Every structure is written in structure tokens, then in C-alpha cells.
Amino acid sequence: LKAIPHTCVQRTIRMIKIIDNGGFSKRLFFVGASGFLASSYSLFATNVIKPALFYTYPPCGRLSSNAGMVIDELTLIGSFLGMLLAGHFADLWGRKKLYGFELALLIIATLGMVQASEGFRAQHPDGTHESTMDIYSWLAWWRFALGVGIGAEACGLSLSVLPLTYTNHLTQSPLVAIITAEWVATKSRGRMLASVFAMQPVARLLAFGVGLAALEIVSAHFGMPPDELDNGDFKTKLVADQVWRWVTGIAIIPAAFAVGLRFTIPETPRYYADILKDVAMAIRKAAKLYTETTPPQGNTEAEQLAANDNNNNDDDSRSQISADSTAAVQGWYTGAWHYLQHPPARNRLLRVSTLMALVDIGWYSLSMDSPSALSSSWNDPLSSSSFSSTTTATTTTNPYTLADASCPQFLSWRTDPSASTSIYRELQSNATAYMLIVSIGAILGNIALVLLIDRFHRRKLLALTFSMLALLFAVSGTTVLATNRAPGPALIATDVVFGIMHFFFSFGPKTLILVVAAEIFPTVYRGTFYGIAAGMGKVGAIIIRPIIGRTGRLPMALGIRLVVVAPVMLLGAWLAWGLPEVQRIAVKAEEGRRNEEEGGTTGDEMSDLEGVERASLREGVFGRGGDDGRREKQPRVFGSGGRKTGWWTRFWRELETMTLEEVAPNPA
Question: Does the keyword Transport apply (predicted)?
């Protein structure tokens, strides 16, 4: 450390330079992506197993006669608490202390779900049954715990939801987003965050793929034909029970792998520099990680600092127990209160929180992670005509097999209660419809975002995709209302529009809002504000979930929801346009070349000057591109000879990502 300047500002500049020289860290990507994949899989697996669970254990009279609704709400409440607590504690205690704990909670909750049971079940002489335990009470508790864990892990694993019916927007991971944003090089930040969040659709596809594989393997093991109905021998019940437990339990494998990887990532340097005020330790941590992850001579400054620090055995605890660190934590609440007294800062938090809520409202209204919603657009895959002539159903007195008029939820495992379908066909058709309508569009949307995120301003792209979704919501809703879901070309066109909507959700709001939320808050408050914003999204979900649950099977309910949500998406576009800039037109290289030709400042010297300018921004409460509510004026782009470039060059240019300190300077 003797080789570098000793002022706080200069050391911070060096820390940022070390991180920026590290480039796109594959190790950081795998650490963030593995945890996001594990938590997303745990949520999305629920939609795979819901029919099997309800088929094996009819939710008749359970949990106030609406087991699915109660479990959904408890899961959302758990995720809301997890987001708030994890985000805030990450600011007070450090990001790394919680990084892994939430996945450990996920593993415990998953084990609890897999082992949930009815206990001892006895049959009375009058034919009624009584159990010593209620499986749905256990599931409700474990889903709440799982919601807390996933809310902490993905206070944005963006955001997605659910429990037993909707789970796509629960993952808005604060910890994943914060650690990734603070560790990654500035130039790679957009691509890195988009790549990590792309694990959401991958996890959904994996969940349904595992579901199909488990269904095939378990059915073959028990010798159950695909079209076999329950004939009283409990074979179909045994298959369904094993399928949902296997699909749920598989989530433990990627979660355990992710926990192991997270031990390889130290505390973020920005936490040391900006919260604990220990810039020397921040430099050590940055030098240590990027010396290990970059090739020889790839980050010479990091190698030099690491070599100078070989005999330094400081660990995380030494800095955190210092008197200065304790004072910094104690003054956090006062500082946060004063910071939010500034209207631009308060507006930034309110704007992002509202956008999170609007995204959840739009996604829940689409409800395309729900089997029942998929069946409303899928071309009658569950009709009795899909069964072979050898299908037989035996009428028995088994209380598990007969539908009871006093229990309207007895057939709730069927997306279409009026159709005669087997549990095998139900699970198979749900997975097939999901992969064709939802998965393809979502994955393509995330791929497009990874490739293009540095070509467009984030706020403009977010506003554009919100506007496109408003148009698609209106078109699809009108089509559904006009055709009444009748089979034919109109229904096929509706399916295509649904797929396009999933593309734009992944290309824009559902992923991009998570990226922006990780960038636009000061480091000292980033965890808390991100958690609040993501938590507000869950508040919107908690409100709209009962509405959709009670109206989901009513005629035209889906079409009406789609039309009503269209103006909500337009509101999102308006709010997104007012977000602060996190990118600017890259003109440094061209200006540096011209300056060198004129004998002026070189490109490297300009970089150093910009570093000093960034440092000066950090010394004030607000700065250019920060919380003053003004966006930096974008310069014109000129080609060789000073000529103005053509429209295509201006349109397809790669934008320069601003440092976190420029986007949101820390208060003095």
C-alpha cells in the first residue's frame, strides 16, 4: 500500500481502477448466476407440482377453504420481509455476511416441504377419514420460510412470484444484484447483471424439464400408462406424490453448489470504502480477487498491491469492529433520513418502487405462469378426445377418487374441471404449453437484452418496452374478449402474442428494472433502498393476487384483465422515462486521439482527469449524473475529420456505462 497515494479520494479512485481493469469476471458471474438459478428454480417448480399436489391431497376445507390462496399470500409476505431485512442488514453488517445464509434457509425450507405429510390417517366406520397432521399447514409454514429466503436472495432474483399458483416475479434479489453491481467492472456491469438475471427463464425451463423427466421415470417405475385414471389402487396417487417431491427436492442441488461458490467471494470493496470508511481494506480486497481471477500481467496494479500485502493478515472482522466502523453504522439512520429529505433522492426511490409494483401487477395480470391461465389460451390440450380407447375409469367408494359436491376444490388439480383427463396428461400438457408459450419468448428476450443492453440507454429501453407491452396487452385482451377463447386461427394468434409479450417482459421491465435498481442508489444505502423498492413490488402482488384468485375462472376474466392493465403499462413507460441516466455517449477515445494530434492531453491522461472528476463528485451530496435530478447533456458524436456521423452509427453506437459513484454519489 506504500506504492499508492494515501488520501481517501485517491485511494478510492485506485480501488475503482483495479475493479475496472478486472473486466467481465467469470467467477463472479458463476457465483451470482448459480444462486439466482437455485432460488428461481425453487419458486418455479411450484407451478410444475401444483396439479400433482392437489391431486394427491385434495385441498378440501383446508386453510379457510382456500389453501392455494393462503399459501400464496404467506409466500409473498415472506418474500416482502426477506427483501426488506436482507437489503437493510446488507448495509449495516455487510453484503458477504448474508450472502449464503439466504440459500441455507432455502435448503432447509425445501427439505421441510419435501418431507411434509398428513401424518397417521385413520378411516372411521362411516367412511370418513381423519389425519394427525395437515400437509397444507406444513406447506404454508415452509413456503413462508422459503419466501423469506428467496426474498433475501432475490430481492430481484427482479422480480417473480409465487407459491402454489404464480411464481414468476418473486426473484428480485437484492444481495445478488448488489454484490454483482459493486464487484463487476463498470464497462461490464450491464451485461453482467443482465446475464445473471437471465437465469430466471433458464430456471423456469429447467423446472418444467425436470418435471417431465420425473413424470416419465416415476410412471415407468410403477407401470402407469399415460391415460390411466384413478381406479382405486392408488397407483396414480403414488406416482403424483413422488413426482412433486422429486421436482421440489432437486432444488437443493444447485442451492448447495451456490453456497459453496459464495465462500470464494470476499466482501465488496465499495462496502469497505463507502460504509466502513476503510479504503485501505477495500483496495486489498479488490486486489486479492482480481489478482486471482485475471491472467498474468492482466491487472498489474492489482498484482502489485497484492504483493505488497502478502504479509497482511487483516480479515473482514478487523475492519468491522473498529471504532470508526461502529460510528459509521450508528450514523447510518440519521444519514439516510437526511438524504431522503432531498426531493430528487426521494423521487428516485419512489419512482423505482412504483415501477417494481407496476411490473408485478402486469405480470400477475398476464398470469402465464399459472396452469389455469395457460389452459385458457392453449388449444384444448386437456379434452377427453386426447385419450385412447383403452382408457378406463373404475367407479369406487374410495374417498380419494370420487368428486364430492360439497368439495368444489376436489378437482382443482385440473386446469379444466369439466374435462376427463389423467394426472399424467395434465402435467404433460401444462409443461408443453409452458415451454412453447412462455419459455421460448422469455429466454430470447433475455438473450437480446444481454447483447443489446450497452447499445441503448436503460431508461429509454425500459420506457419503450413498457409501451410495447401496453399495446400488446390491449391487442391480446381485445382478441380474447372477441373470440371467447374459441379454437381456431384467432386462438393461435393469441398464443403468439402471449409469447411476444414474454419476450418484451424479459427484454425490458422484468429484467431491466432490476438492473437499474442496482445502479441508481448510493452504495451506503443501496441495499436498503433496493429492498424497499423490490418489497413494494410484492405489495402490489399481495393486493392483486386475491383479486385474480377469485376471478380467475370467471368468463372473460383474462381478457378483461389484459385490457385494464394496458394503461398501467403506459404509466410505467412515463415513469421509466424520468429515471436518471446510467450511460453516456462514448466520445473519450475520439477526443483523446484528436488531442494527441494537437499535442494536448492524451487518452490516458484524460482517463486520470475523469477519475479525479469522479472523486470530486463523491465529496458532495449530489453531482453530475447523480441525484440532482438533471441528466448530463449528451455530446454529439463525430467521425474522422470532425464530420458528423450517420444515423446508423449514432443509433448503433455502444454507450459508455457510468461508474456507480457518478450515477449515485454518496452523501458527504
Answer: no
